[in-house]
Amino acid sequence: MTQEQTALSVALEQLKxxxxxxxxxxxxxxxxxxxxxxxxxxxxxxxxxxxIGVFKGCRVQHWDVFGPFKGGIRYHPNVTLDDVxxxxxxxTWKCAIMGLPYGGAKGGxxxxxKKLSLGETERLTRRYxxxxxxxxxxxxxxxxxxxxxxxxxxxxxxxxxxxLKGYRVPESVTGKPIEIGGSEGRVCATSLGLSYxxxxxxxxxxxxxxxxxxxxxxxxxxxxxxxNILHNMGCKIVAVSDSSGGIQCNAGLNPYKVxxxxxxxxxxxxxxxxxxxxxxxxxxxxCDILVPAAMENQITKQNATGIKAKIVAEGxxxxxxxxxxxxxxxxxxxxxxxxxxxxxxxxxxxxxxxxNLTREHWTLDEVNSKxxxxxxxxxxxxxxxxxxxxxxxxxxxxxxxxxxxxxxxKTLGLWP
Length: 416
Ligand code: NAD
Fold this sequence. Notes:
This protein is of the alpha/beta class.
């Protein structure tokens, strides 16, 4: 995070710029600036050493004109209410762009999962969910995984919600393990959706995917799976990183092997025949496609000038500041914005919710082909609008998402 910009200041600046472009009613703009509801809670648990641990938690529900709130839960030492508010707002636009019947939400607990035992993480999850329970539910707000939460976390959430209800409610959360109602394809969905977007953008740029070089920041769910899928599509993965730093290898890396190494050692650093690089060096690595897939505000005015990629595909939410956007635009670098590029996750979460509500289970092929259809259509919608407006893809994506939400808000009116 740079000193001058926070995720919330970025989200609000984007909204302001979009409101001007759309000539939005100032009243509607004021409504959309604020979340509909923010809940803050104190998550108190018994630690393994017998002491009491107190953690700050929150759930922010931005706007819900199309259906229940939907959004991930993040566990991170630096997560703040402001960050979560920005992430919730981006979820609202993302769902609107994809045409999903959801509003945007996000949750967070300020904690370092690397310092918590499995038992402590479980107790923290169950306590947090019990504190926001009244505002959750399959038709109210449906959580999903985000940074440092995973399938196991979602299983505990589903169980906690179900225990409090008194009956099993698989549709209360998405991103669950398959054996308890999760969807085929959910784990890789964000990365697969991103890879489809990269494929579409490469086609428009006449860039051959086979042999194209890729650098990825973040080697978790989104970064690792994107590296694997792009590798399988014929790209050459030349650099990857995690929170402790990165590695570069111009001959190309096998993401699967790097992942196995990271699982063994805790980091990608020190991997065979690679040079260790810093996260800031990774951003400026010589490559055709750069995938930021870690945290917010990683591409800034300062480092954007050194970016050499032709395409920046945003796996992370909010990785690029508005100042950096301008630099990339001037350099003719094609940004596939987060609210489009990483929307595969919420799309397959929606598929999971539909399967749970209808007590059906779709095959992996069904899930992936539905995802491909939906994300390629959204990509085309955004691209067409960008051409019409002679704008970059982010401006067009925001215009599409904010415009749809604003229109629905106006049509619904205010009550009481
Ligand atoms: P994750 O916890 O699985 O992985 C995060 C990765 O980022 C880890 O490799 C971690 O080491 C690395 N990291 C953390 N801080 C870093 C830093 N300062 N510099 C470099 N690397 C750092 O999380 P994830 O689910 O892969 O989420 C990554 C991003 O993608 C987040 O912005 C998240 O909001 C976004 N996202 C995730 C999903 C999803 O389905 N999981 C969907 C949409 C968007």
